[in-house]
């Protein structure tokens, strides 16, 4: 939690002091508001969004008083928190709480769970307009600082209707879209409160997954049942899943018999599987080493947290575990992103070995013994693939019938995974193809050729590009493109003078909040080029464009972002421009997409028409409608009529 909290000295500076708010000033043990803002901005600039752990069920525990981490005074026994301010009348009164001592002690009674004090923490009354407003002001301030969403701590201890009212007072993100919300509800089939009460409000923590995955790693035969609806587990579209969290890895909140970083081999398998499988929205934990369950983060003499240092081998120093840097964890994130939206196929689970494919986009295998050597059906297009967990040190060849020889031989990390379209280390720079940074992309086999359209017009013509890419709120898609520097003379790194850049004029698509960023970013964007933001191209709320902007579209009539051009589905990002076809290569031009600064992988095996030369980018035709898929050679070029 980034807000001001109590400073506990008995025991000495435990981690959990941060769960006892004193005010909503962004001044915590982690740093000042300026420091927090600097971190959030730096993360955002490289495509990492930050969400805040928000503690709004309660303020500090009874018996505590003095100065908070930001120097604000408070007194819990008097219910006095002048930093907000909250006073006695803003807390749940004793008569609303059916408990003999005022503390939560009957999980069978929602009034007890939600109106009484959680371990003596002074319980706010979120049914009050004033309390809701103060919490929403805190959220809105976080959004102003650049935050993209919220974990709602102790959501189980608040009424869903009150949370809804607070969410309704919380503004959209400046870049468009709602903030991300997930609700911490520990539902282990052991009380009156069910996760389903919170699913209309966003994602909900699914703590039963922690138990299920631990069971599955102990006995792979159980892995098919990690999502067990019969057990009350919520559906994939609402489940927020993780192998462990900051509480249960140390025996707090819903702990017990789980897998944590203390057992690295099991942990790697558990997280890799979680990222590979198609259940829920996944969170990866990153920890510090600890001996006792109260112990705070590695600290200096003054109890400020120690820096996270990085060792030569990429691991962390100074007492930080950094599980997120372990290959079977960090590298599997690319897998999860690449296979989003696909199902599980070719499932095989025998003798403590498990393997499966995700649509025609990825394949995953794991062997508890540490060794496996088998030919398996992967369901993937023929080609040579980079194995992700080994950082591409291993290559896997899929033959024309979709089979591959799969070998697992790293006993400490007995996991392999590969995806269509990556990794490439591609920069896409200047359309010159591979960046030569080691890892190579996959070339998938061409699918059925599509009948080709007529020749491109001579001069200016309306040109439409659509790229299917499933995104989340806060993600934006830009394209860069033009002609390859190796195929034309006179190309520079300046759009206005480069012979490889192609003049465009953006067509107006709409007004209203859905188009706000698109309209800003397309102002002053005069070329499709490889060089990012043009001189004079507009920013949106301090957020600069990284190429020619696309706008999110859907095929759902009446929804924001609906366009009749989209006859396909959700998440088809659209660019609709007049283009100077005389600057293309016989009507053809190259392009690639970036999402939050991240290039898509190299494209192989384009299936449309006959482009003038081969390239690692998408090929589009001036004067036509061009439909592509992120990280894929699949395409469709058709007449604009
Ligand atoms: C959560 N989710 O609902 C957090 O994930 C969890 O980490 C928080 O508990 C809890 N809710 C309240 O925000 C932690 C920790 C507790 C600790 C509280 C408050 O697990 O042990 O309680 O933070 O700092 C501590 C003492 C407890 C004492 C209480 C109040 O451990 O013995 O109760 O403070 O002074 C008298
Ligand atoms: Ca409450």
From TrEMBL:
Keyword flag Amino-acid biosynthesis: no
Domain of life: Eukaryota
Keyword tags: Calcium, Carbohydrate metabolism, Chloride, Glycosidase, Hydrolase, Metal-binding
Annotated stretches, region: Disordered: 429-456
Cofactor(s) needed by this chain: chloride; Ca(2+)
UniProt domain Glycosyl hydrolase family 13 catalytic: residue ranges: 2-336
Enzyme Commission number(s) from the entry: 3.2.1.1
GO molecular function: alpha-amylase activity; metal ion binding
Catalyzed reactions per annotation: Endohydrolysis of (1->4)-alpha-D-glucosidic linkages in polysaccharides containing three or more (1->4)-alpha-linked D-glucose units
Alpha-amylase C-terminal domain residues: 344-424
GO biological process: carbohydrate metabolic process
Family: Belongs to the glycosyl hydrolase 13 family.
Identification of the protein by name: Alpha-amylase
Lineage: Eukaryota, Metazoa, Spiralia, Lophotrochozoa, Mollusca
């Amino acid at each position: 939690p980034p807000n001001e909290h109590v400073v506990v000295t008995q025991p000495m500076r435990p981690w959990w002091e941060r769960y006892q708010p004193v005010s909503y000033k962004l001044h915590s043990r982690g740093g000042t508001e300026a420091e927090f803002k600097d971190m959030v901005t730096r993360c955002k600039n490289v495509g990492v969004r930050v969400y805040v752990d928000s503690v709004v069920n309660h303020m500090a525990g009874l018996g505590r008083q003095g100065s908070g981490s930001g120097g604000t005074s408070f007194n819990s026994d008097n219910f006095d928190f002048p930093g907000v301010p909250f006073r006695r009348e803003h807390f749940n009164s004793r008569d609303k709480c059916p408990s003999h001592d005022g503390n939560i002690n009957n999980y069978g009674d929602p009034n007890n769970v939600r109106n009484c004090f959680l371990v003596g923490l002074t319980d706010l009354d979120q049914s009050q307009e004033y309390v809701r407003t103060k919490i929403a002001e805190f959220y809105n301030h976080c959004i102003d600082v650049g935050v993209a969403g919220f974990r709602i701590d102790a959501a189980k201890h608040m009424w869903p209707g009150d949370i809804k009212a607070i969410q309704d007072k919380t503004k959209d993100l400046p870049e468009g879209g709602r903030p991300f919300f997930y609700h911490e509800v520990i539902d282990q089939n052991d009380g009156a409160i069910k996760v389903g009460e919170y699913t209309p409000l966003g994602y909900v923590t699914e703590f039963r997954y922690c138990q299920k995955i631990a069971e599955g790693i102990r006995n792979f035969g159980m892995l098919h049942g990690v999502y067990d609806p019969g057990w009350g587990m919520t559906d994939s579209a609402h489940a927020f899943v993780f192998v462990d969290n900051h509480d249960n890895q140390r025996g707090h909140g819903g702990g017990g018999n789980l897998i944590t970083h203390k057992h690295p081999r099991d942990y790697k398998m558990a997280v890799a599987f979680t990222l590979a499988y198609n259940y829920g929205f996944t969170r990866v934990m990153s920890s510090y080493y600890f001996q006792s369950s109260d112990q705070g983060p590695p600290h200096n003499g003054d109890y400020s947290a120690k820096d996270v240092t990085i060792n030569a081998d990429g691991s962390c120093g100074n007492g930080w575990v950094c599980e997120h840097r372990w290959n079977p964890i960090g590298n599997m994130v690319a897998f999860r992103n690449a296979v989003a939206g696909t199902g599980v196929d070719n499932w095989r689970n025998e003798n403590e070995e498990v393997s499966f494919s995700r649509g025609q986009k990825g394949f995953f295998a794991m062997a508890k013994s540490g060794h496996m050597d088998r030919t398996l059906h992967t369901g993937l297009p023929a080609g040579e693939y980079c194995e992700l967990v080994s950082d591409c040190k291993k290559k896997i060849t899929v033959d024309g019938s979709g089979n591959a020889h799969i070998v697992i031989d790293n006993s400490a990390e007995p996991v392999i995974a590969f995806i269509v379209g990556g990794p490439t280390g591609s920069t896409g720079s200047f359309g010159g193809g591979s960046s030569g940074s080691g890892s190579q992309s996959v070339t998938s086999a061409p699918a059925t050729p599509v009948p080709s359209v007529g020749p491109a017009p001579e001069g200016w013509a309306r040109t439409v590009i659509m790229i299917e890419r499933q995104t989340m709120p806060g993600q934006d898609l830009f394209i860069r493109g033009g002609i390859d520097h190796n195929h034309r003379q006179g190309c520079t790194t300046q759009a206005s003078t480069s012979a490889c850049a192609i003049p465009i004029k953006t067509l107006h698509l709409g007004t209203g909040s859905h188009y706000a960023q698109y309209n800003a970013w397309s102002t002053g964007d005069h070329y499709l080029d490889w060089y990012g933001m043009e001189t004079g191209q507009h920013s949106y709320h301090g957020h600069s464009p990284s190429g020619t902007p696309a706008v999110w579209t859907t095929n759902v009539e009446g929804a924001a972002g609906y366009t009749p051009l989209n006859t396909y589905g959700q998440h088809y990002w659209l660019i609709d421009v007049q283009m100077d076809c005389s600057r293309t290569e016989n009507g053809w031009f190259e392009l690639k997409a970036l999402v939050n600064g991240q290039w898509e992988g190299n494209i192989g095996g384009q299936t449309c028409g006959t482009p003038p030369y081969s390239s690692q980018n998408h090929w589009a035709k001036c004067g036509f409608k061009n439909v592509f898929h992120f990280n894929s050679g699949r395409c469709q070029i058709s007449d604009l009529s």
